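Design job #97: recover the sequence.
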């Protein structure tokens, strides 16, 4: 059976009852299963991970976006994470017996459905992007919800599907297809946001840092600390331990240190094993030495 992963991000991370309603609407779709969801109050954002077949995954993602459009009002939203819509982003990821091209096709169909039935403008990004300048999600989302109306007046930023102006309540949604990424954050023992931003700039690829790393500095107000928040676009090219060590080195320049890391949502086992091997110095380690892996094989 084909398996596609979908990881929609919703602009609600403080009211769990809202997120639960969204999750329930997704789970109600036959052939779709929600594997995980998490909320972040500082970011005011939730991440939901679902899987399904080529035939069912589109409906699952649509039902989540539909419920979010009913429950989330972007005119009242604020948070540390960049966002432009109630359903901010919906990526499709090929997992088993499915091609990237098929995920792109599903992204296109979902974009048309969201715009037609919910009257929300949709931008295609990553592998589904209709133009090279739309491939990078950060560029698509630049200006966020508050700057969206002005941005969409430019010809190069008209939506791929839907109206030429943002939906006042729901904003706009980015729909795409990509390979698996890891949402990985590193926390610092300071509340100085400028330090986190400087470190993020030096760590991300665009600032001369590491390949396949997108990073920004954010505040965690409830904990009175700051964080380097990252998307690890390709953990095989840049493993988690490498970016962690670079952030430790950069932090020393400013007299601060790393006090913890966190993974948002699900993570490939291989990404954690790579860091385990590095930090423990395990020699000649094989993945079939993991008990659970052997059990699954048998």
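Job complete. Output follows.
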């Amino acid at each position: 059976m084909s398996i596609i992963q979908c990881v929609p991000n919703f602009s609600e991370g403080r009211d769990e009852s809202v997120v639960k309603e969204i999750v329930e609407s997704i789970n109600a779709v036959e052939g779709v299963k929600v594997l995980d969801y998490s909320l972040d109050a500082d970011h005011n954002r939730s991440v939901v991970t679902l899987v399904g077949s080529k035939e069912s995954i589109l409906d699952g993602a649509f039902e989540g976006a539909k419920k979010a459009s009913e429950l989330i009002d972007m005119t009242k939203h604020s948070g540390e994470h960049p966002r432009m819509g109630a359903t901010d982003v919906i990526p499709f990821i090929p997992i088993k017996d499915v091609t990237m091209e098929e995920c792109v096709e599903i992204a296109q169909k979902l974009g048309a459905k969201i715009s037609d039935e919910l009257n929300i403008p949709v931008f295609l990004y990553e592998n589904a992007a209709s133009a090279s300048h739309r491939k990078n999600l950060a560029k698509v989302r630049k200006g966020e919800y508050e700057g969206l109306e002005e941005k969409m007046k430019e010809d190069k930023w008209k939506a791929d599907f839907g109206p030429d102006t943002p939906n006042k309540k729901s904003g706009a949604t980015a729909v795409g297809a990509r390979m698996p990424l890891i949402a990985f954050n590193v926390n610092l023992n300071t509340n100085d946001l400028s330090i986190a931003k400087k470190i993020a700039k030096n760590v991300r690829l665009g600032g001369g840092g590491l390949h396949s790393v997108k990073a920004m500095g954010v505040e965690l107000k409830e904990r009175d600390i700051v964080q380097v928040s990252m998307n690890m676009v390709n953990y095989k090219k840049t493993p988690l331990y490498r970016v962690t060590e670079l952030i430790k080195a950069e932090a020393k320049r400013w007299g601060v240190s790393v006090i913890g890391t966190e993974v948002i949502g699900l993570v490939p086992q291989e990404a954690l094993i790579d860091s385990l091997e590095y930090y423990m110095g395990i020699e000649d380690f094989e993945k079939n030495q993991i008990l659970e892996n052997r059990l699954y094989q048998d």
